Amino acid sequence: MTSYFRESRNVELSLLYFLQTSLNQDWTGVTVIKTFNDAYAKDINIPIVCVRLSQTTTSRREIGDDEYWQKYLIIIDVFSRSDGQRLDLTDYLKDKIKAGWIHYDHSHASGNNTVLERTANGRDYIVEFITDSKVDVVGGSDEKDKFRQMISIQVRKSS
Amino acid sequence: MITVTVQGTTPAKLKMIVEGVVERCTRGTADVAHETRNEMVGYIKAGYMGRGRRDGSSGNLEAMMQVENPTHNTYGIGNIMNLNVVTPYWALLNAGGMVAIKARRVPGYFGENRPPMSAFAGTGVGKEQFTYTPRGQKDFSGPGLYGGRQFLMVVNNPIGAVNYIEKTMFWLSVVMKVKFGQWTRTQGYARK
User: Is A152 on the interface with B (CB under 8 A)?
Assistant: First the structure.
């Protein structure tokens, strides 16, 4: 039996997959992860790009319709080796995602959640760039936090 | 004889209409600012809740998020200069991150001067607020099971990102599009 993922999860995984494949092609040694805590794991070295779906807003598509329309807040944390790399990697990511990416429906065979099947189903695109700033945390002194950028975007799936 | 008849809105009436709209916009902006503040406080609280609110939490961050009106029709939430003094952890809580270099020890104590020791696992120690005490700054005369000693906590995990700023901006952008759009339509200002 196959387990199919729902839209929110597919939006997150589609962007993760898109950035993974893009960065593998154009950069060397950039790790793309989904779980924030993993960025601080000993065995994962910077540069790291952490992609996660943080929030969803749901509204009616139109009056009288029981379909709803979801918008997603996706946060992309960029942990870099230097200030220059932080800026380069940020610009690269923004340039890549600005035109949107393929939305995949993900599924996996029951009992095997390590291998994901992907079926293209439309596109995801950016409604708005919300924030794009250097993370400067008072008290944060870890090596990985030194050159960090946070991009937040509002994303929608094409209907 | 030529008769001139003024039709439509006179300049005086137009002035009144515009002033009325400006007044409604001003009140509306203030309402949005207060709603946005409430939303942000909600995200901060939810961020704490997700991690289990600790005994002794001051609630300072929520209290600091007040609507400021520095100039006419300009609103801000939280004063960054005050935040940096009273709640300097505002950015760390928003963005997440390590409070110290991993495996470095942070001096301080839990609750009533209890050490962060595995021997206390399951007793509630460690779920209390951790009080950071820079070396040499602790009052050793205070009460406590351990005679006012200072302890060292090994930092293993990062502070999770609450992203209350991004969540609020996301919420606001959706609200502005939906609510402002509805308002302009009901007022007849929307493009036909």
Answer: yes
